[in-house]
User: Fold Trimeric intracellular cation channel family protein from Streptomyces albidoflavus.
Amino acid sequence: MFQQFFTPAVQHTLDLMGIFVFAISGALLAVRKNFDIFGIAMLAEVTALGGGLFRDVVIGALPPAAFTDLGYFTTPLCAALLVFFLHPHVERIQSAVNVFDAAGLGLFCVIGTTKAYTYGLGLTASAALGLATAVGGGVLRDVLANEVPSLLRWDRDLYAVPAMVGAAMVALCIRFDSLNPFTAGVAVLTAFVLRLLAMRYHWRAPRAWNRRSSGVEVDEAST
Assistant:
């Protein structure tokens, strides 16, 4: 469905741009963790392709696009090599990387939702897979790097919520037969802007109601 809005060449270019930026975030984390070149490449590949692979396996789009299009596989490797040799320079433009990462988040939550619906899933399941497409790679990245996934941490800016909003908007547009290039673009833009605002103003999800302020207590108990 989403493919009807763009030519195959434009769709492919957008996919590769999102994959490249996601791969950079994975490679940078690998450098911070002092991984070797294989670890850097592995984390770049997993971050860039993990969400899409999960979606394609669930909906039965086999073999997944990551294994049928060489560009999908080699783009993360190019990002890994860039970070391997130039990571101090890449770190200095982290803000720009974050902006493109937010754009990829918005794009992939919309693509994931529409592709899942095209393969016969219901609206709720399609939106869930749209979310998984956008954030799944980051979850796998953090798990492999032995970290609590960022989207589960209260001290991190909202990441999953913007993708959820974008995916839900697409599902609602499908429900009311109003999904078109304009509404799809609005969904992408909404997720993108929400993520930027979350980074700018440090928006975070609420924690349990009436919980004790135990963060300090736990830290003190563990020392």
